[in-house]
Design brief:
The chain is mainly alpha-helical. It is built from 6 helices and no strands. The protein is elongated, with a radius of gyration of 61 Å.
Length: 220
Amino acid sequence: MSKIGKLLKGGGPGRSKGRAGPTPQEALARLRETEEMLTKKQEYLETRIQRELAAAKQHGTKNKRAALQALKRKKRYEKQLSQIDGTLSTIEFQREALENSHTNTEVFKNMGYAAQAMKKVHENMDLDKIDSLMDDITEQQAVAQEISEAISNRVGFGDEFDEDELMAELEEMEQEELNKKMTDVRLPSVPSTSLPSRPASSRKKVEDEDDMKQLAAWAS
């Protein structure tokens, strides 16, 4: 059996016959080994193709038989290389599908663990008790709100007095205070002696000025 057949079949000297199928990790490892082997085979064939092409060019028309043989080998290597390309594509697709399946399996397993954990947590919870607790919380919140509103309201001390009466009383007090201040103010006393009369020369000068004004007005 070929090496590829052994890898895909999963056989090996160290593998027990009674063991179940390979795990996803083992299968992925085998596929990666196969990909690595085929990649090396590709590199080898590409080298041989270049070598046979160079030989065909070297012989050319001088040795047609050798040149044709080189081209035939080149064609065979190219065919093998094409087959390996197709095989690698198939293996790559299979590996990606297996990886996705393994990922989905792990996700499903972890979701199952989470569901079990949630179920275990909820086992100790009673829906009736939860509803009762929420009702108590709502009631206490309402009480706390009423207390806050009662504390924040302004205390109504002095609200029983009429504000208009208080304003009138205040204005009366201000008027009394103003009257008191006016009473305390002292006016200057009238002098007992008569004021000095204007000198005669001054009166004469004023009369002359008035006459000149009248004359100027008449002349104009």
